[in-house]
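dumping this here so i dont lose it
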C-alpha cells in the first residue's frame, strides 16, 4: 500500500450468495466486528436482489455498495440484464467489470469489458476492472502479455481524468476459489506491471494514483503480507467476505 498517492480499497465480492435478509444480517455483523475504518474504503458487491437491503444496512457506516455486473446498453431487449440507471438509482457506487467467472461462464470478452467500463464511468459510478491469467498461461510464461492485453483493451478510450475513478483488480484465475494464493512476490510483480502499463498510457502522476487490488484468495491470514507490498492497494475478496470475522480482519489489516 502507498497511501501517500492512492486509496486502499477492500471490496467483498459475494457472488451468488445471500438473500436480502441474510445480506442485512451479514452487513450488521461486519459493522459490529470491524474496528474503526479510517485508512481504507470498504465495499460490498452483492447480488442484484440484495442491493436495496444492503444500501439500507450500510447507511451511516463507512461501507459502500457495489454490483457484480452491468450491461453496456442503457435499455432494450436484454432479458435478465441490468442497466447503469437501474443500479445508480438504487444507490450503487461501484461495479465489478470483467470478473473471470463472467469471462469463463458468460462469454465476456475484453471488448465487452471495455464497453462496460465506459458505461459505468458515464453513469458516475466506479468500475472495478478485473484482469488475470489462467494456470496454463502462467505456466507458459505469458502472464505479462496476457495482463497487458487485458488492461490496454479495458482502458481503450478512457480519458486521463477518468482514470482516477478506476480500480484495477488483479485476480489470477488459478487462485480464485481454489485455496491457492499467489505469493506476495508474485502478486506484487504483476500489480507493479499493471502500474507500469498505466504509466505508459497516462503518465507517472496518473499511474501512482490508481488503486490496484489483489483478488486471488486473499484471507485473514495472508492479507497483511499481501497489503505490505507497495503496489497492492487492497483486495477483491471472495469467500472470506462472507464471514464477518474474516472480512473484518482483512479490513483491519488494510486499516493499519
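and the seq i came up w/
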Amino acid at each position: 500500500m502507498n497511501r501517500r498517492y492512492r486509496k486502499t480499497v477492500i471490496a467483498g465480492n459475494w457472488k451468488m450468495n445471500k438473500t436480502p435478509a441474510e445480506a442485512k444480517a451479514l452487513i450488521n455483523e461486519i459493522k459490529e466486528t470491524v474496528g474503526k475504518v479510517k485508512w481504507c474504503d470498504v465495499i460490498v458487491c452483492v447480488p442484484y436482489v440484495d442491493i436495496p437491503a444492503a444500501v439500507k444496512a450500510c447507511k451511516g457506516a463507512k461501507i459502500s455498495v457495489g454490483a457484480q455486473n452491468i450491461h453496456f446498453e442503457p435499455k432494450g431487449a436484454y432479458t435478465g440484464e441490468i442497466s447503469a440507471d437501474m443500479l445508480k438509482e438504487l444507490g450503487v457506487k461501484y461495479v465489478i467489470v470483467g470478473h473471470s467467472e463472467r469471462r469463463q461462464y458468460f462469454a465476456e470478452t475484453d471488448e465487452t469489458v471495455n464497453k462496460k467500463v465506459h458505461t459505468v464511468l458515464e453513469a458516475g459510478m466506479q468500475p472495478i476492472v478485473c484482469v488475470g491469467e489462467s494456470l496454463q498461461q502462467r505456466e507458459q510464461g505469458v502472464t505479462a502479455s496476457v495482463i497487458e492485453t487485458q488492461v490496454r483493451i479495458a482502458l481503450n478510450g478512457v480519458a486521463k481524468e477518468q482514470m482516477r475513478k478506476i480500480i484495477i483488480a488483479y485476480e489470477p484465475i488459478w487462485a480464485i476459489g481454489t485455496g491457492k494464493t499467489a505469493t506476495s512476490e508474485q502478486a506484487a510483480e504483476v500489480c507493479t506491471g499493471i502500474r507500469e502499463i498505466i504509466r505508459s498510457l497516462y503518465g507517472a502522476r496518473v499511474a501512482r494514483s490508481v488503486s490496484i487490488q489483489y483478488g486471488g484468495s486473499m484471507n485473514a491470514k495472508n492479507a497483511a503480507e499481501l497489503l505490505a507490498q507497495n503496489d497492492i492497494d487492497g483486495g477483491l475478496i471472495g469467500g472470506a467476505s462472507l464471514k464477518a470475522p474474516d472480512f473484518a480482519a482483512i479490513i483491519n489489516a488494510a486499516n493499519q
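The chain is about 40% helix and 15% strand.
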